[in-house]
Amino acid sequence: MIRLAPTRCNVACRGFTVIELVLVIAVTLLIGALGVSAFQTYVVRARISDSIGVTIGIQEHVEQTFRQTGLPPADRREAGLPASEAEPTQYIAAVEIADGRIEIHFGETAETAIANRILSLTPFETVDQQIVWICGNKIPGVGLKPLGFAGGARQAVQVLTSIEPRYLPPTCR
Fold first, then answer.
1. What is the pLDDT of residues 20-55, one digit of tens each?
2. Residue 150 falls within a domain, yes or no?
């Protein structure tokens, strides 16, 4: 019978040290926290993009009214819309018109980054009387004037939003 001599256990067979285990847990938590933050930002951006999509029909009413009267509509009624509208989504409290500008009012049920905040879509006109919509804090391009500027009467006024730029889609920054 052959007997093997007992061997010493080297470092590889002893397992993890406490420091190694703590480091692995810390890195895992850090990556998880970054993932959750990125997901929350994505969800808020999606909500804002959806809300802008809700206004497409309203934009058309504003444009039609302007082309017919030469003035941006003062409110929903002048744009040919009902004075008030049921909530279009669960996170939008109201969509209003103020001198041609469309204001999206986010409700309390929206994510905290946008809850109770307003995002504006402001119409501008080009020299050849095309209408361009500017969202949020985006700076109007060269040659764009507020809707109604050419007529010298009531004009749409851009109102900056208090929503953090990281949540705004690229078209609104």
1. 889 999 999 999 999 998 999 999 999 999 999 989
2. yes
Q: Is there a domain that residue 24 lies in? A: no
Task: From 74, 73, 54, select the one nearest 63 (Cα to Cα).
Answer: 73
Q: Which domain holds residue 107?
A: 38-172
Give percent above pLDDT 90 in the chain.
66
CATH number for 51: 3.30.700.10
Percent helix, strand, coil in the chain (nearest 5)? 35, 15, 50
Contact 91, 110 (CB under 8 A): yes
Residue 25 counted as domain residue: no
User: Residue 103's beta-bridge partner residues?
Assistant: 96, 120
Q: What secondary structure does DSSP assign to 97-142, as a single string?
A: EETTEEEEEE-TTS-TTTTT-EEEEEEEE-TT--EEEEETTPPPPT
Would 103 be classed as within a structural domain?
A: yes
132-169 per-position pLDDT tens digit: 999 999 999 898 999 988 777 788 899 999 999 999 99
